[in-house]
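Our platform keeps sequence and structure together, in a single record for each protein. Such a record has a labelled line for the sequence and another for the backbone structure tokens. This encoding replaces a full spatial description with a residue-level series of whole-number codes. Below, we set out a record of this kind in full and without editing:
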Amino acid sequence: MTHDPLVQVRAFLAEQNTLTLATLGPDGDPQAADLYYAETNDLTLYFVSIPGSRHAVNIARNPRVAVTIHVDSSRWRDIRGVQLLGTCALVTGADRAGAWTRYCAKFPFVLADAALARALDKVSVYRITPRWLRWIDNTASLGHNQEWLLVDGEWQTLDPPDQ
């Protein structure tokens, strides 16, 4: 059995609920939005949003995104989280049903609240496909981080940055 260097990242993503999505506006200015997400084992992230939202319009124009996911902490030593770069796209066709099922499995309250379920009939599902990620864990040591790059469908560990 091979050691999975991303096991800690996968577990962390499963424990968290909210990501901050950064997109580029029409004038090139960055824009950020907080969204609930559901993850897959290959580190794909799904979120739902109204197609006319600023970030959805930005994604339609330029699919490159940055994302952060972190724990809420009030001490430097408690900081843990993921940063990633990738692309984002609208999920359509048969893939949409699978993404929606995954999202509702993580957030069952979506279907339990009739008013919310009706409101979500108007949303679209989006997929974030990461190509680079950094794991930050100050609980291991101050400034501790690891980076990976997706190369030919495989996550490759990058050399640690000078610290």
In short: The chain has a mean pLDDT of 92. The longest helix spans residues 93-106. The CA atoms of residues 26 and 58 lie 7 Å apart. Strands lie at 18-24, 30-36, 38-39, 45-49, 64-70, 80-90, 124-137, 145-151, 154-157.
